[in-house]
User: What shape does this take?
Amino acid sequence: MPILTSGNVDFVSRSPEQTRRLGIRLGALLKPGDVICLVGDLGAGKTTFVQGLAKGWGSVDPVSSPTFVLVNLYRQPNGDQLSHLDAYRIESIPEAENLDIDTFLIDGPLVVEWSDRIMQALPAEHLQIDLSWVADEQRRLFFTPRGERYEKLMQDFKRIAFGG
Assistant: This one.
């Protein structure tokens, strides 16, 4: 179990819709260069969360898991892009580094599913969200900010998501 500090948020979602709503609230706060790292087993709710994240960020595109294409791009009407990377099939850190992750961060935020597989290739400062299965309709989301930008992001997120 992760250690809870003042910057963390520990939340149990009671439905896929609630998971999406949390994503919408966080997505509304994202800026180009932000990195969101999602960790969790199959069925933990990662793609469901990203569906909300992309909607809150302002994407006009439908969200699906990029497992077989590695990266999906979701657009805003102004041309900014949210990059959705699935690291499940990436075999090594050099393979991840060949993706040139920094270029994704120029036009928008980057969301990485299975980020624990390529953490060494990702920026040290990021927001990590651990998702886990609790019951059929329930998922635990544990948010850990790494770096000043993400501590501020979590303060803003807590205020708009929970009124705190």
Notes: The domain at 9-162 is CATH 3.40.50.300 (Rossmann fold). The longest helix spans residues 148-162. The helical segments are 16-27, 46-57, 93-97, 101-104, 148-162.
